[in-house]
Amino acid sequence: MSQDGTTVRPSSGMAGESHRQTLTRDINEWIAGASESLGLGPALHTFRCECGDSRCGRTIDLTRPEYEAVRAYATRFAIAPDHENPETDSVVADHGRYSVVEKLGGRASSEAHGSYRR
């Protein structure tokens, strides 16, 4: 709600950003599954940055346990450092190679929960 008492609705850009993040999470789930199927151990694996920027093509390196720690929460995403959107994300951890953000309440959080496949 804004200061004047009116309801603030997320822009279609914010909704699109949340959708892109959940799609990228699905791609990374496929990568994680393929890595597991190939028997790749705890070495670093390359994943796509899960930020909502449609222009982002960055990759991030996480071990399987690091990746699983992010996936333990429906509303958390692994991103390249400094790729968070302060309007929708709260940085919960900075690991140097990657950061972990949590979706703030509202539509972004609801979409993250609704598309969570675990």
Fill in the keyword field for this structure:
118 residues, alpha+beta, disordered N terminus, single chain, two-stranded antiparallel ribbon, three-stranded antiparallel sheet, 36% helix, 3 helices, globular
Can you offer a commentary on this structure?
The chain has 118 residues and is of the alpha+beta class. It has one domain (12-114). Helix content is 36%, strand content 19%. Strands 3-5-4 form a 3-stranded antiparallel beta sheet. The protein is globular, with a radius of gyration of 15 Å. It starts with 11 loop residues before the first helix and ends with a helix.
**Uncertain segments of ≥5 residues (pLDDT<50)?**
1-12
**Overall average residue pLDDT:** 79
| Secondary-structure element series | HEEHEEEH
Number of helices: 3
Helix percentage: 25-40%
Q: What is the total tally of β strands?
A: 5
Radius of gyration in whole Å, from Cα? 15 Å
List the helices and strands and how they pair.
Blueprint lengths: L11 H26 L7 E4 L10 E4 L1 H8 L4 E4 L9 E6 L4 E5 L3 H8 L4
Antiparallel strand pairs: 1-2, 3-5, 4-5
Q: Can you describe this structure in just a few lines?
A:
This protein is an alpha+beta fold.
